[in-house]
Amino acid sequence: MRKIVPIFFLIPLFALSQSTSFEFHSPENIKKFADNLFCEGDYLRAIEQFELINEKLDDDTVKFKIMLGYSELGFFSESNEIFKGINDKSIFYPDAYLLSFKNQLISEPGLISASSINSFNSLQLKSFNKLNAISMLYGDEFNISRENFISPFDGDEQNSISTFYNYKVEPPYKSPALAGTLSAIIPGSGKIYVGEWGDGITSLLATGLLAFLAYDNFRADHTTRAWIFTGLGAFFYAGNIYGSIASAQIFNARIDFEFNNGLKLFLKEQNYFLPEYDFCN
Amino acid sequence: MISVIKIFFAFLFIWIGTVTLVAQNPFEDQFNYARQLYDEEKYFDAVTEFKRLLFFYEGDNYNYKSNLLIGLSYKEGAKFSEAIQHLTLAELNSKNIDEVFIARLEIIKVNILRRTTGRALTLLDSLQNDLKFTGKSDEINYWRGWAYIFSDDWENASSSFSAIQANHQLAVFCDSLDKDLYSVQLAKILSIVPGAGQFYTDEYVSGIISIGWNVLWGYLTINAFMEDRVFDGLMVGTLLWWRFYSGNLQNAEKFAIEKNLEKTNASLRYLQYYYFGNKP
Predict the structure, then answer these.
(1) Looking at this predicted complex, what is its ipTM?
(2) A255-273, pLDDT tens digit by residue?
(3) Hey, are the CB atoms on A20 and B55 less than 8 Å from each other?
(4) What's the total number of domains in chain A?
(5) Residue A112 lies inside a defined structural domain of this protein
(6) Distance CA A182, CA A192 (A)
(7) Which overall architecture, per CATH, does domain B2-177 show?
(8) Cα distance between residue A199 and residue A191, in whole Å
(9) Is A7 on the interface with B (CB under 8 A)?
């Protein structure tokens, strides 16, 4: 009886302690939870949880997920900081390398001087060459033949890439100096040169009318009114020259904006030529 | 001997009972911890801990409460889409009519805050038409009033609050503001007489300037026609007088809209800081 009593007491204690303890914060459970958050798209929390176990586990999958999460959140420099900690022997290194290229292209658009790495497979090498070509579009100097430029891209992509190539080689800019000169000779013609037909014709009519009114009033000896119309006419004339120059500059800024925006949209549609990483299925 | 065994089992029963009581359920602990974070207004961490609980707990005991509090935490962080997503999950996991009502009201409040007031009003209509919530008409009217406030419809807001109580504090407030607002249409009509619209909106300097310009260009136009200088008259009339006259009409309308906006914003600020009743 004496031997049985402690056993009776210990069994329920043991059973209860088993059923009531759960390690929410064990590294394994944190990783499971972080993976779930990552798959939900709650990257900020997922990164926070991954960071808790990153040093303990020293797992390249975790590091790559943190890098990917930061990139998805738009924290590109943080993402590239994580890349520095990924071992170049890791299976994820080539993908991380490409992702860091993408991050740099978004955060600091410009020519990126990066070289290919041996661990790239054929698809990754293709993506790298495409991103490399795209980075040239952001550079100041651009002297590459069309054939060489579009060669890394696939059939469907080549049409879009050709358009960007044309924009880069011969941007359809309008000369502000020419617009101003044209408007000085014939009021409104600078605006018409920029493509603003309505404004051009209105400027021509308004300046012409005011000039006529000034002339007519001088002829009829209404000098006060004549000077008012002369002043207004001169104001319209000068304003029209200034407006034509400004319109050409705005036109050129729009061309740059459309080029950059179009390229950004195209790259986004193509996911920057990177594969979709599926850690959730 | 029998009595010893009886005493032993009695002890055993009491001991197990005590152990069961003392031993905390870790999921309950986790919920309480998350709840504590929520109460301490640490909303980001609260969401993390509620999500952790929901991820590991296999039952559905915490689905309603946790999703509701996640939704409310997101709401506090102005993450309205995420808030609605979790409040909807809370509604789906509700176990009784009261829980459904609470979750749906929270969804309505988030819609009010993010100014999708059309959606808020539709949800309020669905609550009102649902026979299960017939006893909740005061609450429904109260939040309908707030939805109208955020849609800048102070007259309907006042009617909704009045449906709860004739002299409801918010009904009186909305009424007084509604009366205080300028009529944009009237400002435009009054501006047929140059400057009158500006005077109506208390913009006296602008009104006087408007009168001045219109008198000057009107005089020059009429004078030109009277002296048979038809071309001059047409030019001054169309290029100058008409320009200033139409500017005067637009100006009065703009003043009325701007001043109304100032008044409504001031009222919303007042409600935010000095109204202590329930707010979205």
Answers:
(1) 0.73
(2) 999 999 999 999 998 888 8
(3) no
(4) 1
(5) no
(6) 9
(7) Alpha Horseshoe (1.25)
(8) 7
(9) no
